[in-house]
Amino acid sequence: MEGPDLGAFSFGLDDLAEAFASLSMFPLFEIAHYILMCQAVRSDSGGLTLSRKHPLANWVCCMLMCSAGGFISSLLLGLPLIGPLSKTPNVLLASAIWYVVFYAPFDVFHKVVTFPPVLMLVYCVKELHRSHTILGGVLNARKVYSSGIIVQICIGIVRGAGSGFMLNFQRLVRGKWSPETNQILHPTVVLKECLISAILFTLPTGVLPINQDQLLLLTGIVMVAVKVTLTLTNVGDPFKPIENVLCIPIFGRAEVMAAEKKKKE
To answer: What is the DSSP letter of 148?
Structure first.
């Protein structure tokens, strides 16, 4: 009895990875991204209050979140900050999503996209989009700094998790300032995923047993799996156990530092 044809499986996997790598993010994947960004502004701004009193500020906040990675990476790479707004179809699509999220009759669009099965689908599409943006950020940085590994990693991170860094600035547009909530002080699971993914994408060819397209596909699948797991369960940050093992012997216990500070006071 013959075993499974692993060669055919490998060929199919290569085709799938190549197809995924060549997927266009516009419009389907961008729609999922824009929906979640506008929903984030809506939930962070206290529902519909801001949109009714200050629609222009509300629109600006949503555009900042929708193109957060582009704005921040342009700033870091010395490119025109207004660059992300030069993609007119993207701006128009993001504006359309903004309008239906906040102003659809009877709030029907918001109710549909927050319906758990629909929201889970949007989450999955968004995570696949994120993997593409991380790789895109690394490749864009490589064009400017071909040997700057740290720069490539940083741009990959901000392209994948830019909305988290932009959150405080868009709050400032709304007249709210909360610097203690930034991602540097409180890294999210998404930020940690982006960091690991960006590092993997910067590794020289041949270090990993898979090519770039396969790594992109694997990254997308893992991000979807993590998002689904965190949404459906209460497992918490999956990186915490590893951080606790590594950080305590290197940096010490936070409780010890806090106790010493309290003793001095």
So the answer is: -
> The whole model's pTM is what?
0.90
Which residue's entry shows tokens 């806090």?
Answer: 258
pLDDT in tens, 37-56: 999 999 987 668 889 999 99
What are phi and psi for residue 34, nearest 5 degrees?
Answer: -65, -40
Nearest-angstrom CA–CA distance, 85 and 73? 14
**Measured distance CA(74)–CA(184) in Å, rounded:** 19
Which residues, 6 or more positions from 38, have their beta carbon under 8 angstroms from its beta carbon? Answer: 62, 65, 66, 94, 97, 98, 101, 102
Dihedral angle of Cα 257, 259, 264, 265, to the nearest 10 degrees: 120
Helix (H, G, I), strand (E, B) or coil at 159: helix
Report the alpha-carbon distance of residue 161 to residue 239 in Å, rounded.
17
Give the contacts of 229 (CB within 8 A, at least 6 positions apart).
235, 238
Residue type, 137: G
CA distance 171 to 40: 11
- Reading the block at residue 117, the tokens are 């099965």
Q: Please give the Cα distance from 137 to 165 (Å, whole number).
A: 15
The string of pLDDT tens digits covering residues 170-200 is: 998 888 888 888 888 899 999 999 999 999 9
84 band by pLDDT with thresholds 50, 70 and 90: very high
Percent of the chain past pLDDT 70, that is, above it, reads 90
